[in-house]
Design goal:
The chain has 613 residues and is of the alpha+beta class. Helix content is 54%, strand content 12%. The chain folds into seven domains: 74 residues, SH3 type barrels, CATH 2.30.30; 76 residues, Arc Repressor Mutant, subunit A (Orthogonal Bundle); 90 residues; 79 residues, no CATH class; 95 residues, no CATH class; 72 residues, Transcription elongation factor, GreA/GreB, N-terminal domain (Helix Hairpins, Orthogonal Bundle), CATH 1.10.287.180; 69 residues, Chitinase A, domain 3, CATH 3.10.50. It has 29 helices and 15 strands. It is globular. The protein starts with a helix and ends with a strand.
C-alpha cells in the first residue's frame, strides 16, 4: 500500500480495501481504460481528488479520482500493454528476433486468449509497422504452428488460444479436443489435429482415445444437429486419412449411416451450410448409404443444396457415369419450370460441356420465371446471382436465342422487356446481345414498347390499400429501423468481417429497391371494383368456367394486377394464365400451366360472367 494512502487507512478515513485499490493508481503504476487504452499514472492530488494519467490515446488525461477508480483496471508493469508504453522499442526488437515469444507474451497478458482482430489492433501500427503487418503475421502464424504453443484459428474473428507449456504437442492438441464445449469446438479441434498430424507420429494412442468420444458426439448430434454431426464425422475421417497408424473401427458411425435414414429434403437443408470438401465427402457416401438407388437419391437433392453442392454432385455423377440420370432430371424440371436458380446457373456455365444436352429454350423461360416470381415475393431477393450471371456472361443470351426458333426468340425478348427486375439501361444492354444474334427482335425495342410500360395498372381497391400500407410501413418503420441497425452494426468494427453490418446493408438495398418499386406501381395504379365488366369475352373482372379433356370443371376469376390468390382461384390479368385467357370467348380452347404440377394443359372455355365482389 502506498505510504500516503496507508496514513488515510490508519486514521480510519478510508477502509482498507479502498486503500489497496487507491494504491494501484499511485504515480508510476499502470492501468487500462476501455476507451483510452493502457496508461501510466504520472501524478495524483489526493486532497483535490484528481489523478493524471498518460494514456495511449490521451496523454495528460486528468480524471476525477472516483471516476478513475471505477473506469480503470490495474495492470502489472510486466503486462504487454504496460510495456507498450515504456518499452516499445524492446517489443519491436522482440517482434523481429522471436515473434513467437512476442505473441505468447501478448496472449499471457490477455488471459491466454484473444481474437485475431484484437491481436492485430494491439500490434499493427505500433509494434509492427502497418505496411509490414500482413507479411509479418503470415510468417509468425507459420512459426506458431510449428512451435505448437498457440492454437491458430482459421478466421480473424475466432480466438487464438495459448496452450499449457508443460504438455507435449500431441497432448495439447488432444486436450483442445477434450476441452471443447460443443460440436463446433470438437470440429475445430479435429481440424487442428488433421493440420498437425505429424505431432502424433510417436503418440497415436492419444488419437485412438478420441475416436470413441467422436462416435458418441456424432450419435447425439445427429438427432438434433445433423449438419454438425456430418461435419464431425467428416473431420474424423480427414484425421484418419492423414494418419497411417489409424484405422476406423468396424462399428464406428459413418457418413453413410447418418444420411441413409434421413429425408432428402432435410438432408439438403443441413448439407447446404457445409464447406465444399465436407459436402463432397457427404455426397461420396451416397453409394454406400443407398446402394443401387444412390443416383436417384442424389439427383433428387441436386437443386436443393446450394451452389457448392450443385457443383460437387455434378462432379461425382460425371466421374461415376451418372450424368444421363441428372440430364433427365434437369430436362423434366426445366419443362415444369421447377428448377432452382443454383441449378440453372450451373446449366448455363456448363452449357458447352457437361450440360450441353440440357441447355434448351426452356432454360430462358425458367430464368425469367424465377426472376419474376422472386420479384413479386416479399423479403430479400434469392435470385441476385442469376441476374448477375445474365449481366456478366456476355454470351449466354446469345447462346440461348441461337437455339430458339424465330417465334421463341421474339417471345423470350418480349418477356425480358416486360420483366420488372431489370432497369431500363440493363434491358437495353441485354437486348443488344439478343438483337446481335436475332435481328428480327429489334422491332420490339421501340417507342410503342416504351409507352406500353407506362400504361395504367388496373387494381382492386383492397390491393391498392395494401400496397400503400406497405409503403407507409417501409417509410415510417422499416427503413428508419434499418438505418439504426446499420449504425449499431458499424460500431462493432472491422466491416470486412462484420456479418451484422453486411446483413443490414443487404436489407438496406432491398428496402430502397422495394420503396422505389412501390412508389412507381402506386403512381400507375387505377383502382376499380370490377363492376360492369363486359362478359362477352374474358376481360378484367370476369369469372371464367373451363373444362379439361376429362370434363373436370375449373372456375377462375380474372382480376387486377395485384389480386392473385391461388387458393381462391383469383388470377391477375398480368399473370401467364391471365394473359392466355384475356379476349377468349366461350367454346375456344386455351393452353395454361397447371399450378400444382407445372405441366401445360388444354382447357375449353364453357362460360363467362361478370365478377361480383
Amino acid at each position: 500500500m502506498h505510504p500516503d494512502v496507508a496514513k488515510l487507512v490508519e486514521s480510519g478515513r478510508i477502509p482498507k480495501p479502498l486503500g489497496e485499490r487507491l494504491s494501484q493508481l499511485a504515480p508510476g503504476n499502470f492501468c487500462i481504460h476501455k476507451s483510452f487504452g493502457a496508461g501510466k499514472v504520472t501524478e495524483w492530488d489526493l486532497p483535490g481528488k484528481k489523478v493524471t494519467i498518460d494514456f495511449e490515446r490521451s496523454m495528460g488525461q486528468i480524471m476525477e479520482l472516483q471516476f478513475a477508480l471505477q473506469k480503470t483496471e490495474w495492470i502489472p508493469e510486466s503486462d504487454f500493454r504496460a510495456k507498450k508504453i515504456e518499452q516499445l522499442e524492446e517489443l519491436r526488437a522482440l517482434s523481429k528476433q522471436d515473434p513467437v515469444a512476442l505473441v505468447v507474451h501478448l496472449l499471457q497478458s490477455h488471459g491466454g486468449t484473444m481474437t485475431g482482430k484484437a491481436l492485430e489492433d494491439a500490434l499493427c501500427g505500433t509494434v509492427i509497422p502497418e505496411p509490414d503487418f500482413k507479411k509479418w503475421w503470415d510468417a509468425t502464424k507459420k512459426s506458431l504452428r510449428e512451435s505448437r504453443r498457440v492454437v491458430i484459428p482459421s478466421k480473424r474473428t475466432e480466438a487464438l488460444i495459448l496452450r499449457n507449456g508443460d504438455r507435449s504437442p500431441a497432448e495439447a492438441l488432444v486436450a483442445d479436443f477434450e476441452a471443447a464445449r460443443d460440436i463446433k469446438g470438437m470440429i475445430r479441434a479435429l481440424e487442428a489435429i488433421a493440420a498437425d498430424i505429424g505431432a502424433f507420429d510417436h503418440d497415436t494412442e492419444a488419437l485412438k482415445r478420441l475416436l470413441h468420444d467422436i462416435d458418441e458426439g456424432a450419435k447425439k448430434a445427429s438427432r438434433v444437429q445433423l449438419g454438425q454431426a456430418l461435419q464431425l464425422v467428416a473431420a474424423r475421417d480427414e484425421v484418419i486419412g492423414s494418419s497411417k497408424a489409424l484405422a476406423l473401427d468396424p462399428g464406428a458411425v459413418r457418413l453413410a449411416d447418418l444420411i441413409s435414414s434421413v429425408d432428402p429434403v432435410k438432408l439438403a437443408e443441413d448439407v447446404v451450410a457445409l464447406p465444399s470438401t465436407r459436402q463432397r465427402a457427404v455426397f461420396e457416401a451416397f453409394p454406400d448409404a443407398f446402394g443401387e438407388l444412390w443416383i436417384a437419391k442424389i439427383v433428387h437433392v441436386f437443386d436443393r443444396v446450394g451452389a457448392r453442392g450443385v457443383t460437387e454432385i455434378a462432379r461425382i455423377l460425371l466421374d461415376r457415369g451418372g450424368m444421363p440420370a441428372l440430364a433427365a432430371h434437369l430436362r423434366s424440371a426445366l419443362a415444369r419450370r421447377a428448377l432452382g436458380s443454383d441449378a440453372i446457373i450451373w446449366v448455363c456455365r456448363e452449357r458447352k460441356l457437361a450440360a450441353a444436352e440440357v441447355f434448351s429454350p426452356d432454360v430462358g423461360a425458367s430464368i425469367l420465371n424465377l426472376l419474376e416470381n422472386d420479384h413479386l415475393a416479399d423479403g430479400p431477393r434469392k435470385t441476385s446471382r442469376l441476374q448477375t450471371l445474365l449481366n456478366e456472361d456476355k454470351t449466354v443470351l446469345g447462346d440461348l436465342v441461337t437455339i430458339m426458333d424465330i417465334n421463341e426468340s421474339r417471345n423470350f425478348a418480349r418477356r425480358l422487356l416486360d420483366c420488372p427486375v431489370f432497369g431500363d439501361l440493363e434491358k437495353k444492354s441485354l437486348m443488344a446481345r439478343i438483337i446481335k444474334i436475332r435481328p428480327e427482335t429489334a422491332a420490339l425495342v421501340s417507342g410503342e414498347r416504351s409507352k406500353k410500360h407506362e400504361e395504367a395498372l388496373l387494381v382492386s381497391w383492397d390491393s391498392l390499400a395494401r400496397k400503400k400500407a406497405e409503403l407507409d410501413e417501409l417509410v415510417r418503420v422499416r427503413i428508419p429501423q434499418n438505418t439504426k441497425d446499420i449504425s449499431i452494426a458499424r460500431s462493432y468494427g472491422d466491416l470486412r468481417e462484420n456479418f451484422e453490418y453486411k446483413s443490414a446493408k443487404d436489407l438496406q438495398r432491398y428496402l430502397s429497391h422495394r420503396k422505389n418499386e412501390l412508389e412507381k406501381d402506386i403512381a400507375r395504379a387505377r383502382g376499380t371494383d370490377f363492376k360492369g365488366s363486359d362478359a362477352s369475352t374474358v376481360n378484367i373482372g370476369t369469372v371464367v368456367t373451363l373444362t379439361d379433356a376429362d370434363g373436370v370443371e375449373a372456375v377462375m376469376c380474372v382480376l387486377g394486377a395485384w389480386d392473385s390468390e391461388p387458393e381462391k382461384q383469383y388470377v391477375s390479368y398480368l399473370s401467364e394464365v391471365g394473359k392466355a385467357l384475356l379476349g377468349r370467348a366461350p367454346g375456344e380452347t386455351v393452353q395454361v400451366r397447371n399450378t400444382t404440377t407445372e405441366a401445360m394443359q388444354t382447357l375449353t372455355l364453357q362460360a363467362i360472367k361478370p365478377f361480383n365482389p
